């Protein structure tokens, strides 16, 4: 049922009379409402309500304690105010702080203050709260022991909460698996406001929250993660190849995609960023330069890598190098919580299961990349542990066996000008890639959320319909979608936690 006109007032009173300090409950008349609302927005597309046809929150709850999260859920249920849970605010469609439903009355439950990281060196684990950024996590891990690491993504401002909820791909997954593959336990506030650990939530729900996408199952307040063991230094290098002249970029790309599924050094990840007429090969090797350079010479001579390209750094400094491209970047750079209100971005994603070959790479550069410097493709190789060791049903992330790489397409623009050209470019390159990428379904990555592949509809019973969810859900989760929906039906049958792409409840067995 819809919220009554006084529902927000009642919700706020409920929060205040529970346990939440008044300065942590903000309404649009509060002086800091806008600054808190935009504090982790990463996309100018969503920075102002006029630039998007979206509904803004009626309230922000800046939780600093698990009890605040419980109160927000209980008061929200009582007064029919839904919650948009926000950890790092990087959602590609801004769903952690805006709604595309005009009749939605909702509050943002902001977890940015719940950001503690507690490393337990004795058993090489850590508890990390969802509001921590990946950079804060890396910093705490690296400072506690340079031999510890975590297989997370390249961008340090991404929130742990959303990252792990969507599975989490990164530069060490060929060796250690997805971020979510390394979650051992979690604390979740469910739709009744109860706190559940792994034992209390049961294995089905624990399975679902490790990759089934954020928002759907409750609020994960913290995660217990397994730390990975790395040598005291690892090796990073960047090599740029261009398409002009000798066509070095195309030859290197054609070789690169054929190496991924070979039993070739899971310790090595080479992701590729394509922009303009350049392919930047960004590499992380969990080991020393000597063995790496010899192997590259033998297996991948097209890259032309030599010992002089190597930077041997602690893992923490290596992550700072990957972020900044600067070998002297201090690890403290990883702690910056910068946001981005200047640039508009739209992204889409694909998975490639068959090498696309030199002709297609040439065409991509000629017809698309070299014609728009504001368009970018990021290729993340799979294989290794993420592809071979963990079955497709072990977690909701289904893009494992046989996947060569994920493709992320992004296009940038500034102000209102340029949006049409940007969209034409993105739609064009996505269409051209269609025949070359996975099909039936055309797979997509939930962490690169794209509302253009489908949005939920609400049925007459007030619940998200399963059929509307299948359109986008089977592209993100393939055969795992149904199991996610069954778990949702069991743990949140009233569909309290929902957004335009949340898992719909299904009241059947799988
Ligand atoms: P945000 O707070 O916006 O939440 C995302 C979604 O999860 C929302 O639906 C939200 O409601 C829900 N949610 C958030 N916290 C929750 C919680 N505690 N409990 C339940 N639900 C919660 N991904 C990747 O896998 N590898 C990568 O290398 C990168 N790199 C990258 C770079 C940049 C610049 C961006 C903008 C994004 C990425 N991503 C990525 C994608 C990123 O992992 C994805 O957008 C995450 O959802 C972001 O998590 P946040 O907590 O920042 O987002």
Automatic annotation (TrEMBL):
<feature type="domain" description="FAD-binding PCMH-type">
    <location>
        <begin position="53"/>
        <end position="230"/>
    </location>
</feature>
<keyword id="KW-0732">Signal</keyword>
<dbReference type="Pfam" id="PF01565">
    <property type="entry name" value="FAD_binding_4"/>
</dbReference>
<comment type="similarity">
    <text>Belongs to the oxygen-dependent FAD-linked oxidoreductase family.</text>
</comment>
<protein>
    <recommendedName>
        <fullName>FAD-binding PCMH-type domain-containing protein</fullName>
    </recommendedName>
</protein>
<dbReference type="InterPro" id="IPR036318">
    <property type="entry name" value="FAD-bd_PCMH-like_sf"/>
</dbReference>
<keyword id="KW-0285">Flavoprotein</keyword>
<dbReference type="GO" id="GO:0071949">
    <property type="term" value="F:FAD binding"/>
</dbReference>
<keyword id="KW-0274">FAD</keyword>
<dbReference type="Pfam" id="PF08031">
    <property type="entry name" value="BBE"/>
</dbReference>
<dbReference type="InterPro" id="IPR012951">
    <property type="entry name" value="BBE"/>
</dbReference>
<keyword id="KW-0325">Glycoprotein</keyword>
<dbReference type="InterPro" id="IPR016167">
    <property type="entry name" value="FAD-bd_PCMH_sub1"/>
</dbReference>
<dbReference type="InterPro" id="IPR016169">
    <property type="entry name" value="FAD-bd_PCMH_sub2"/>
</dbReference>
<dbReference type="InterPro" id="IPR016166">
    <property type="entry name" value="FAD-bd_PCMH"/>
</dbReference>
<dbReference type="GO" id="GO:0016491">
    <property type="term" value="F:oxidoreductase activity"/>
</dbReference>
<dbReference type="InterPro" id="IPR006094">
    <property type="entry name" value="Oxid_FAD_bind_N"/>
</dbReference>
């Amino acid at each position: 049922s819809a919220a009554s006109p006084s529902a927000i007032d009642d919700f706020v009173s409920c929060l205040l009379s529970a346990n939440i300090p008044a300065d942590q409950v903000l309404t649009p008349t509060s002086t800091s409402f806008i600054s808190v609302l935009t504090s982790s927005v990463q996309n100018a597309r969503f920075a102002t309500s006029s630039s998007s046809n979206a509904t803004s929150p009626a309230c922000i709850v800046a939780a600093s304690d698990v009890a605040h999260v419980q109160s927000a859920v209980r008061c929200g249920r009582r007064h029919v105010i839904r919650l948009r849970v926000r950890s790092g605010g990087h959602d590609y469609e801004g769903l952690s702080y805006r709604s595309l439903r005009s009749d939605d009355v909702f509050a943002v439950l902001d977890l940015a203050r719940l950001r503690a990281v507690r490393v337990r060196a004795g058993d090489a684990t850590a508890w990390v709260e969802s509001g921590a950024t990946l950079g804060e996590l890396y910093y705490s891990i690296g400072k506690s022991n340079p031999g510890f690491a975590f297989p997370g993504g390249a961008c340090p401002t991404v929130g742990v909460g959303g990252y792990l909820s969507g599975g989490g791909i990164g530069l060490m997954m060929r060796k250690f698996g997805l971020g979510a593959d390394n979650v051992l336990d979690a604390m979740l506030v469910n739709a009744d406001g109860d706190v559940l650990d792994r034992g209390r939530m049961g294995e089905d729900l624990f399975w679902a929250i490790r990759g089934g996408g954020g928002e759907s199952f409750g609020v994960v307040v913290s995660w217990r993660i397994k730390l990975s063991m790395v040598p005291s230094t690892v090796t990073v290098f960047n090599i740029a190849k261009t398409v002009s002249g000798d066509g070095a970029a195309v030859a290197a790309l054609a070789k690169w995609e054929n190496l991924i599924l070979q039993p070739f050094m899971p310790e090595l990840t080479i992701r590729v960023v394509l922009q303009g007429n350049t392919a930047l090969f960004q590499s992380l090797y969990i080991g020393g330069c000597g063995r790496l350079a010899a192997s590259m010479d033998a297996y991948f001579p097209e890259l032309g890598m030599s010992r002089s390209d190597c930077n041997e750094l602690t893992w923490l400094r290596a992550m700072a190098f990957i972020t900044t491209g600067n070998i002297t970047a201090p690890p403290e750079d990883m702690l910056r919580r910068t946001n981005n209100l200047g640039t508009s971005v739209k992204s889409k994603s694909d998975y490639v299961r068959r090498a696309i070959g030199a002709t297609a790479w040439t065409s991509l550069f000629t017809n698309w990349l070299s014609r728009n410097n504001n368009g970018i493709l990021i290729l993340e190789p799979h294989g290794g542990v993420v592809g071979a060791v963990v079955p497709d049903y072990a977690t909701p992330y289904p893009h494992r066996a046989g996947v060569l790489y994920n493709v992320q397409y992004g296009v940038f623009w500034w102000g209102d000008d340029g949006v049409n050209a940007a969209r034409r470019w993105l739609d064009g390159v996505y269409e051209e890639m269609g025949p070359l990428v996975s099909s039936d379904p055309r797979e997509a990555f939930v962490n690169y959320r794209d509302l253009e592949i489908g949005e939920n509809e609400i049925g007459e019973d007030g619940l998200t319909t399963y059929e509307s969810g299948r359109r986008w859900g089977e592209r993100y989760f393939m055969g795992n979608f149904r199991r996610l929906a069954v778990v949702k039906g069991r743990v949140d049958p009233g569909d309290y936690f929902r957004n335009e792409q949340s898992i719909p409840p299904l009241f059947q067995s799988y």
